[in-house]
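[Automated response] Your request has been received and processed.

Submitted sequence:
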Amino acid sequence: MRFVEESGDPGQPKVRQMTEQSSRGAAATPEHTAAPLSLPDDRDLVMRVMPLPADANANGDVFGGWIMAQVDLAGAVLPLRIAKGKIVTVAVNEFIFKQPVSIGDLLSFYAEVLRVGRTSITVRVEVYAERNPAAPQVVKVTEATVTYVAIDAKGQPRQLDPR
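Generated structure:
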């Protein structure tokens, strides 16, 4: 398995994408040879969506930017509950595309809070695709770490309530 590092700047988010592909077009990962995956039961399911044809390129793969937008929405669910008010995305700390996403994949977004700071909340989001309803297969397609900050009415960072 080989990754291409898209950003070498220390202050920039790490964006990696698989470069080796199987004959079917799916990235070669241990998930193809290991026992079949199932959807996690130890994290919060925060969103489920099926991409539409308008979300895909000419090859039928869903645009990475569309997936990133969905991860940002899904990742905000838990911080919004914790902050009990307005939040903004301040950093995409890491984003890894593990498998291509196709039209017809049912995507499930699972989140867990990694850290709660004075004003910020960092969340890990994992995205799983359920494929081929006739012979169901679950694969992890994306994982990301995103940081959100609680803001006040003037758009300034505000302290989170003690938990």
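Summary generated for your ticket: The beta strands are 3-5, 14-18, 44-49, 87-97, 106-116, 120-131, 137-150. Residues 64-75 form the longest helix (12 residues).
If you did not submit this request, please reply to this message.
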